[in-house]
Amino acid sequence: MNIAVCVKQIPDPATPYALDPETHLVVRPAEQVLDDTDRYGVEVGLQLAEATEGSVTLFSMSPAGGLQGIRQALAMGAAKAVIIDDEALRGSDALTTAKVLAAAIQREGFDLVIAGTESTDGYSGVVPQQLSELLGVPSLTFARNVEHIDGRMRIERQTETGYDVVEASLPALISVTAGVVEPRYPTFKGIMQAKSKPVDQISCADLGIDTDSVGLSGAGQEITEVSPVASRQAGQVIEDDGEGHLRIVELLEQAKVI
Amino acid sequence: MSTWVFAEEVNGHPSASALEMLTKARSLDGDVAAIYVGPGGDDAFAQLGAHGAQRVFHMAPGDELPAAAVAAALAELVAAHAPDLLLFGLAATDRDVAGRLSARLDRPVLSNAVDVSTDGGTVSVVNEILGGTTRVVTQVKADAPAIVVVRQKAFVAEPGDAATPEVVTVDLPATESSAIIVERHAEISEGPDLEAADIVVSGGRGLGAAEHFSLLDQLAELLGGAVGATRAVVDAGWVPYAMQVGQTGKTVKPNVYVACGISGAMQHLVGMKDSGTIIAINKDAEAPIFGVSDLGIVGDVHKVIPALVEALKARG
Question: Is the ipTM of this complex over 0.90?
Answer without folding.
Answer: yes
